[in-house]
Amino acid sequence: MLLRPPPLLFAALTFSSLAHAEDLQLAPVEVTSSEASAGEVAQAQLKSVPGGTNYIDMGSVQQGRVSTNEDVFKYQAGVYAKAANNEGVKLSIRGSGLNRSPGSHASGLYEMFDGLPLTGPGGTPYELKDPLWQSRVEVLRGANGFDQGALALGGAVNYVTHTGYDAPTLQVRYEAGSKGYAQREISSGQVLGDADYYISLTDSESDGYQRQSAATGKGVAANFGYRFNPDLETRFYLRYRETTNDTPGKLTRAQISHDPRAANSLNAARDSQRLQPGSTWIANKTTLRLDDSSRLEVGLAYHDYPMDLREGTNRLKVAYTDISSTLKYIRQDTLFGHDSQTTIGLRTTQAMPNNGASEYVRTPAGNTVSYAPGTKTRDYSYLGSDTVLHIGNDLELVPDLWLTTGLAAIYTRRETEVSYPDGQAPLSQHDWDYAPRVGLRYDVTPQLQVYGNLSRSVEPPHAWSMIWGSNKYFTSGPARGLAREGVSLKNQTATTLEIGGRGEQWFGQWDLALYRSEVRHELLSVETQAQTATSNAIVAEANASPTVHQGVELSLLSPLWDGGGNGQLALRQAYTFSDFHYRDDDRFGDNTLPGIPKHYYQAQLRYSHPTGFYTSFNTEYSSKVAVDYANSYYAASYSIFGATLGYDAPGQDWQAWVDLRNLANRRYANTVTPGYDDKGLDVARSTPADGRGIYTGVSWSWR
């Protein structure tokens, strides 16, 4: 079905968006001071990776509106994050999950909370990733998340929660703005002897830009840590959140140009909604220092994330529960007289037996016209597990030249079965695979580092995609036209070459990476039939013929003027070039894979005054985006502009800001969910970006 492209030996450039020039230390940094903050340790670790990484300080992100992860990942080279109608964000790194819809569960990335698994066999849900709970976000692009057990094409993202060590004793924050937007938070964190705690309560609401796109959310995040002695500490985590989102559906390019606030007529008629009635994540991480050169980290996480989807002719009630455990041993010593660090890790995530879905008639139409609302159509299961055993080593061959090696063994299991109306043939897949990695990092000077790595990634399908990709349907009864058994899918694999560097020169702080991935059996989803008045959309998933993902990731932070007591002027830029295409596919030749722009650029010009006042002007450019695999139609390119004016008190006790978005009120598609072959027609496949918006916020902290 979806099949191939030709090998272009390219590579990817990565300018990680770095917040402060003084943070850049390129020599191998070991932070041993007890006074070093957790953020400094994390930055040092990211800079020791021979590949593309991003460090996001949420303190700087929160100097403006922070509504979704699209706000979090602004100005981050190599990261494409776009929201649609609600907080569901299409997050793609190096083409991971490039053709997914922004709602539901994301694919192609291994995501974590505080170093513990969030991603399960069903993918990554979005409702627990409230940006206000984060202290920082760490991104390890591609194979650079190896030591976290991340083996997916896109790499790893780690959302790190505030603790009592970096949170104010009391903080209150309020945001408000266009289209009924409001967000509130109250939080507290303290260190109490050997213990510390952090707790945050948030709630939000919005009328939405499109009609039929109102949303609400409320939740709590908390953690409690205790240090028994200098060698043993533990921390417990809790996240709980509920969300409701009306779903306005997708629009055509013409609709976005002329009436972008419209809802898809079928979604409006059906009062389509996506409810997350209550998601819970409970975890513990315990660290034991064995001696001066080694430590052991043990983690356990419980994740329950049900969904109630009332979007089409049927209602889908989905149950997901995962149990994850991690074990990591880290040792620093010498090997043949050379400095060495070894990491051995094991992580496993197991879907619980209750995982699955029940489907009911919601709005009688088509095949279900004779069945009353509430009539059950299907029951089916989504089961599986992921287990990764990995060992990695960093060895200093000669001064300032480091060799990174690693090997992972992966066991994946996926099972699905339609158990109602008739017990159908269950589908079970069990696969062993492997992922090696080798890299070099050379610190030419303290201000210049170059690197290269070669790796293999492995990504299993989701169990739910094995049902939705099936072409075997019921032919009678309430389930007529619905899949009756799963379809077998292969693991997606890729071999990736990456080269790049980072440093600080006269023109500023820069980070550059080039990569090329030869992908086999890429897991691609496609809408093969649009929804109609009598049927739901049909979205299938299949393994593609060989594809290529290659690109350039580039970021630059340039100090333009330093006026001392009169303030500073700096320019931040992030550019991502993404060339994802088939390699000699029988049907599509070398066509571009749809869903992501080839060129994506963001920039911010910021003036900061020592008294705490700041103002910035920002811009974003995206090239056109293919909306089908045949490349017969494109979403338009766009450029937008915005500005921010704010005050951040030097004592960090209060902050206020005004954030102006899309000043020219440009109408454009923010996300694209691809079709197969639209034959040049303008089909409803895009969600519109918000129009012009004005947002303001204030926060007060007692420290």
Automatic annotation (TrEMBL):
InterPro entries: Beta-barrel_TonB, Beta-barrel_TonB_sf, Plug_dom, Plug_dom_sf, TonB-dep_rcpt-like
Keyword Calcium: no
One Pfam family of this chain: TonB_dep_Rec_b-barrel
One Gene Ontology biological process: siderophore transmembrane transport
GO CC list: cell outer membrane
UniProt-recorded name of the protein: TonB-dependent receptor
Family assignment from sequence similarity: Belongs to the TonB-dependent receptor family.
Membrane topology: Multi-pass membrane protein
Highest rank taxon of the organism: Bacteria
Upper taxonomic lineage: Bacteria, Pseudomonadati, Pseudomonadota, Gammaproteobacteria, Pseudomonadales
Keyword annotations: Cell outer membrane, Membrane, Receptor, Signal, TonB box, Transmembrane, Transmembrane beta strand, Transport
